[in-house]
Amino acid sequence: MSAETVLNEVSSIVKETVPSGVEITEIEFEGSVVVIYTKNLDEFADNSDIVRKLAQSLRRRVDVRPDPTLLAEMESAEEFIREIVPDDAEITNIYFEHDTGEVTIEAIAPGIAIGKHGAILNEIKKKIGWAPKVVRSPPIPSKTVGEIRDFLRSVHEERREFLINVGHRLNRAENVGENWIRSTALGGYRQVGRSATLISTRDSKILVDCGVDFSSEEATNPFLNAPEVQPLENLDGIVITHAHLDHCGLVPALFRYGYDGPIYCTPPTRDLMTLLQLDYIKVAFGEGKKSPYESANIKEVVKHCIPLRYGETTDIAPDIRLTFHNAGHILGSAIAHFHIGDGMYNIAVTGDIKFEKTWLFNQAINKFPRLETLIIESTYGGHKDNQPSRKEAAEQLKSVIQRTISRKGKILVPVFAVGRSQEVMIVLETLMRYGEIPTLPIYLDGMIWEATAIHTAHPEYLNSQLRTQIFQKGENPFLSEVFKRVDSQEMRETIANDTDPFIVLATSGMMNGGPVMEYFKTWASDSNNTIIFVGYQAEGTLGRRIQRGLSQLVMNDKGNQITVDIKLNLETCDGFSGHSDRKQLLNYIGSMDPKPERIIIGHGEESKCIELASTLYKRYGVETRVPYNLETIRAR
User: Fold this and answer.
1) Is 196 in contact with 188 (CB distance < 8 Å)?
2) Which residues contact 410 (CB under 8 A, 6 or more apart)?
3) In terms of Cα–Cα distance, which of 197, 16, 161 is closest to 600?
4) How far apart are CA 439 and CA 426, in angstroms?
5) I need a labelling partner for 148 at 20 to 30 A (CA). Which of 373, 511, 616, 627 fits?
6) pTM, whole model, 2 decimals?
7) Which spans in 155-221 are helix H?
8) Which residue spans of the chain are classified as CATH 3.30.300.230?
């Protein structure tokens, strides 16, 4: 059955279900959603049963939107909103979402913008046609989020055409013959870096993650030249579990070489990976290296993103449905659960997970409706990989800082801009607020400030305790005066040469370039100073070499080669990791419901993958596999 035939059947069901007086102007597939455009939106609003009946009859998601002719021009609509909403609401931003026909109003005082019993919103809707919603303004404005919204606004017609094409591809006729499911390891197996997994069925191909490996000079990319992957145009979709570059760093290059399909991820992942991919280009240029893509390719990623919230299920291929669940790793990180066929098989890919509540996020989800195969990370799966708790990590950090300050030394913390930075910020601010360590300047260098702004733009992805602290108690740790943004090379040099004690959080987290090297170069030879590692240091990275006791390093200093003696104190606070340690990984499987029939293990050094697989088999009696890259496993 063709997509056109399916659409005709959908149209017939809609006409039978909708009251005769309701004018339907268009029915179309946009992605996995059946979108109904009407000139009588109020009829649907007054009778919610219509949409429910349609969804049940069609067995599809249904979205009812006003006919485009009823929507006021965005400029005049924004002007009216600013006129009718009282100044006391303090509007900070207004943005229009063509995908949904909504206009979002960000305000410092959202209750005032809504009006008594929603009176102002009702008036706005009557006047401009757009469906208004009011949200509290993020405490820190994000340049990245603003630019993404502006870009999507400028390409809304192209984007609708893209969504229609996706919808028609999703509803293509399925092949006839024996059903089968395979997973192919394309990168990140028996290693950390360049994560990529291909899930194939008789009818579909889905690529899960597509990252880069910064610890390797040669094998930096997944095996995308494998015959299973080519041509890229045959991929039905790409699913990104989270925004770290070892999981999404090569995605823009796919659009450079022929891919033109959808990218599925959570809204925060879209924003964060845009930030990190743009920085990837910048860093490559600064180091005289060639980037595998340009900023125009990143714009294509944004245009082709179909954001999904946790728990929202959508068709991504004729025989595959996707649901994201919280992974607890970084903002928007997700476990991708794939329901394949009509109840035939279920696969979950964890990406990176944290099975412990942290200062930022709730712990990873391990309860699913059904699950036959689990593909799980093993970064800390070795038999000795047991980490301190978050509370113990905070105590360790406090002790290290106290000792360093007593020597009048400076503290350097290499961090990933996303995740570890924000957790360390919260802990440091709390310690200073309660007088457990002296109040000192905390300088934030690299993308940390912008990444933090993106966190505040998506508060619903933070844990409930932090949301309450920020939005109800008015205590936002990210806005503390102790944090100072480093925004120039001149400021960086001034800080590096300052003699007073203070703390610097700087990227990159594994010390493969970035502003952290400027401080390290100046401070490394002074034994009063301390460097604290709070994140994973991959094999082959400079961070791992320093962590193991590297005594000298040849560095570039304004075009000259210099030798730096490494005498500063080396400390590692493992309890800040966004990855589950061995105990948490075992507990994750042990308390999982339902238990999977098979567990495929990756994203770990070879020894850790094997050790985790052996223990899981012995303890739970479940089949475990540790594939090599390019190995394919038939799931069914």
Assistant:
1) yes
2) 404, 501, 502, 503, 504, 519, 523, 528, 529, 530
3) 197
4) 14
5) 511
6) 0.92
7) 156-170
8) 3-69
- Written in H, E and C, the secondary structure of 450-510 is HHHHHHHHCHHHCCHHHHHHHHCCCCCHHHCCCEEECCCHHHHHHHHCCCCCCEEEECCCC
Output the six-digit token pair for 257: 């070489």
Q: What is the mean pLDDT of the chain?
A: 92
Q: According to CATH, where is 3.40.50.10890 located in the chain?
A: 390-576
CATH code for the part of the protein at 71-137: 3.30.300.20
Average pLDDT, integer, range 520-540 = 90
pLDDT band at 1 (very low <50, low <70, confident <90, very high): low
What CATH number does the domain located at 174-384+579-634 have? 3.60.15.10
| CA–CA gap between residue 183 and residue 160 (Å, rounded) | 32
Answer for the pair 253, 297: CB distance below 8 angstroms, yes or no.
Answer: yes
Is 80 exceeded by the pLDDT of residue 108? yes
Compute CA distances 298 → 151, 247, 248, 277, 508, whole Å: 11, 15, 11, 7, 21
In the chain, where does the domain assigned CATH 3.60.15.10 lie? Answer: 174-384+579-634
CA-closest candidate to residue 520, choices 561, 476, 565: 565
Q: How many Å apart are CA 12 and CA 547, to the nearest integer?
A: 66
Beta bridge partners of 206: 199, 237
Is residue 404 a contact partner of residue 528, using CB atoms and an 8 Å limit?
A: yes
C-alpha–C-alpha distance, residues 309 and 265, integer Å: 8
CA–CA gap between residue 381 and residue 386 (Å, rounded): 9
The CATH class of the 390-576 domain is alpha beta
Strands (E), 518-596: 530-533, 552-557, 560-565, 569-572
| Best CA proximity match to 287, nearest among 565, 556, 563, 561 | 556
Omega before residue 110 within 30° of 0, cis? no
* Main-chain phi, psi angles of 265, to 5 degrees: -165, 175
CATH 3.30.300.20-classified regions of the chain: 71-137
Distance separating alpha carbons of residues 292 and 256, to the nearest angstrom: 9
| E strands in 225-279 | 237-239, 263-265
The fold of 3-69 is GMP Synthetase; Chain A, domain 3 (3.30.300)
Give tens-digit pLDDT for 310-359: 999 999 999 999 999 999 999 999 999 999 998 899 999 999 999 999 99
